[in-house]
Structure formats: structure tokens, C-alpha cells
């Protein structure tokens, strides 16, 4: 299954990566990993990343809710039927969620992704709730030195983002 999944999504990875690069004006390792996660979800679920499903505006939010509810395998494309290895599908879906982590620095590195796909290392822990997005800390300007003691990051819950 894993080779079929990777083969089916190969052409889309480049497109998704370019889309992320256009959105953020710069392609980075983290944007490439996020795009790879989107491609994995698209291939396994048979749906485009922007597909609205019920109250969810994005595929990744729907899959994260299935993971939280303990029904992750319900995300597998229905047309596949029972023609897949359950543990492989679960591994790929969890890897996709790890790659889609809202905090770029928490996403797996490319080498780790290869090791996960090959089976030499397990999928990293994926929390049942989608973590909140946190703005990265920015260096202070000299004129802003009076703000030095303020928090370096800001968290915003994403539970309402993507839900209708």
C-alpha cells in the first residue's frame, strides 16, 4: 500500500509545495513537509485538501477530529473497501497529521519521514487534539525594547478554524 500511496501522490506533491510557497512567499523545509502531509491525506482519503466535510472547511481538520474520536480509519477512501493493510493506513494518516502540525518546528524532518515510511522508526506521537497555532517569536526592534518582558509567542486556538 505505501508504495501505491507514494506513487499516486508524487505529481501532486510538487503542486502542493508550489502552492504553499506562493502563499508564504518562500518555500521552506517546513512548507514542503506540510505539503507532503496534504498529499498523503489527499491520496488516502480520496479528497482534496480544501474539501468541505460536514462542519469542517479543511480535510486535515476532519481527519484530526476522527483521530480525536478514535475513528481515524474512517478517513480511508471508501472505494478502497477492505483492500488495504490497516496498520499501514493508520501509519500514513498519523504521519500526514504530524506533517500538518500547525507549528512548523514540530513537524517531522524529511529524514524522519523517510524512516517512518520505510518502517525503521515509528510514527511520532500525534495528540488527539489539533495543537493551537503559535506565532514564532520575533526579534525585538530597538524602539520596542520596552516590550522585552512580554510573552515571546502567542497561541490561538484553531478549533473554530475550518469548522462551519
Give a topology summary.
Elements lengths: L1 H23 L4 H17 L13 H11 L16 H14 L10 H9 L14 E2 L20 E2 L8
Antiparallel strand pairs: 1-2
Helix pairs in contact: 1-2, 2-4
Summarize the structure in words.
This protein has 164 residues and is mostly helical. It has a single domain, classed as Transferase(Phosphotransferase) domain 1 (Transferase(Phosphotransferase), domain 1, Orthogonal Bundle). 45% of the residues lie in helices and 2% in strands. A two-stranded antiparallel sheet has the order 1-2. Helix 1 (2-24) packs across helix 2. The longest helix has 23 residues, at 2-24. The radius of gyration is 17 Å and the shape is globular. Residues 1-21 and 140-164 have low confidence and may be disordered.
- The biggest beta sheet, please? 2 strands, antiparallel
> What's the CATH class, please?
Mainly Alpha
Annotation field: number of helices:
5
Shape by Cα distribution: globular
Number of domains: 1
Q: How big a fraction of the residues is strand? A: under 5%
CATH superfamily: Transferase(Phosphotransferase) domain 1
**CATH architecture field:** Orthogonal Bundle
Distance between the termini: 33 Å
> What proportion of the residues is helical, as a percent range?
40-55%
Order of helices and strands: HHHHHEE
Question: Class by helix and strand content?
Answer: mainly alpha
| Low-confidence runs | 1-21, 140-164
Number of strands: 2
Strand order of the largest sheet: 1-2
- Taking all Cα atoms into account, the compactness measure Rg is 17 Å
Look up the CATH topology.
Answer: Transferase(Phosphotransferase), domain 1
